[in-house]
Amino acid sequence: MKKIYIILLVFLSISCEDYLEKEPQDSISELAFYKSTEDFELLSNAMYAPLPKLQFRPMLLDAITPYIVFGNNVGSEHWDFGNLNVDALWNATEDFWKFYYQIISRANLILANIDNPDLDLSQSFKDRVKGEALFLRGFSYFYLINLYGNKPYDGTATGGVPLILEPQEFDDAFTPKSSVDVVYAQIEEDLISAQALLPSVQDYRGTALLGKASKGAAQTMLGKAYLFQGKWSEAATELEKVVASNDYDLLSNFNDNFWPEHDNSIESIFEIQYQSGVGLGSIYNQAISPIGSGGISNSAWFKNQPTPLLVDKFQTLDGYDVQSTYESTNTNYLVTDYLGNTVINGKEHNTVFDIYNFTSDDPGFDSNMPFENRDPRFDYTVMYIGSKYVHDKFETRASKPGYYIPFGDNFWRRTNYNAVKYIVGSDYAVSGNDSPKNLHYLRYSDVLLMLAEAKFQLNDIDAAVANINTVRDRVGMLHVDTSLTLEDILDDRIRELIMEAGGHVYFDTKRYGTLKGLMENFWDGTQKMRNNYPAITTFEDYFYTFPIPQKEILANPNLEQNPGY
After folding, report:
1. DSSP calls for 488-535
2. Domain housing 522
3. What is the pTM assigned to this prediction?
4. Is residue 36 part of a domain?
């Protein structure tokens, strides 16, 4: 699909600026001039274009939880460190709303025009493009309703979004909010229809269409939509279709998912497409890389910084928990590399560093080497001083043989850790803000873990165990057994999926209603890291939904703000 983007760039510079992006003057439908296969293919491609424009926004959703903190500008764009004073002018709320509704608007144009009997379009082409439109509309409404609405399994639905299903006339452009249940019903209808129309991803592989929505993507999204509503049997049925298709599999190495050469791989179900060198690259590489990192990225912002709460989630290889307790902060900590050297390139490097006491019941655990023999997903997710993976990933790559990255306080302003997942470094990016790396919304491992959860909720423990162990096998982790708990499944979702575009961890805490407890328990006022952030005395229920952007409230007199904002 990346090949399509150069053509799409030309189309967007003309059509989207002159048409799709303009405010309606009278009637949008009067401008629906699409007639040929080429017209509809271009409009189909344009449906995907807002996803890359979201850039790092979806990847930072997990920073709303206490597992991740926002590195350089505390609370400026995401809820962080107990700073929950978010309002309707928050940039992220505007971007999610704007770009998902752009996708919906373009999908509605296709759906309103493609079945015109006067058009000379093949049935297979119409089915595929119509299926893409239905998938992307259902996909977009799924994320909108889970950002601006909420319905935990044991609670009452709150919030909602306008449900727009046709190109709007100017006089009809003041749609009120629909409830969570009404929006989910439409999501289900769209995705059921989409999977009946879309081809298998096998038909895309080896073609320029690879990366577009497929039958498996529609089945996965429908399974996810059912799961988020507690419709366990329906979720299991859809997710089992994906498994039974044999269209997907896990890559042999977990870390391969996060390198450009494995974009649109056999594990990928749906991902945001990027292309460097033509103005369509990703800035996520820059957004999360450490500042002043030299060999990693230029002028980076270290936005996603793991907390000790996340670090402790990665067990030892034998399945034992690890607990870290803050002791003090050393303002002149001597950096040691992965080989134990303190003198690198002829000089010593010092940094501000938090000292923790690490403990575990694992008989082989060494508190002096707390990151040894841990779940391998840890090294591929979290950057830390002494990480051999940082050496292997950046220092020994072709462009900088023998190079040493001098860790310092610029690498982690808030914690001892930085994100490393999806950082590809300067070897791939034309510049720090032009990375070619795609970002995943849906991976096959997510399918297996969702299926494990659905089966667990249906009391089919053996099936749940089998699915979660398939994911753990890839990284050599000890198998779980029939003593499996729901917490075990959700913890493996954290280890596998944290800081990915699906916002998996954040949404898991919303649907189970655990975000309140996590925030209050972690941000309780006790020292957890070098910055002693204030306690969260009250996590209000309305924090579970985003505020609707103020500009939308002002533009639409029928649109009511979500409670609390």
Report:
1. HHHHHHHHHHTTSTT-HHHHHHHHTT-HHHHHHHHSSSS--SSS-PPP
2. 41-278+441-492+499-555
3. 0.92
4. no
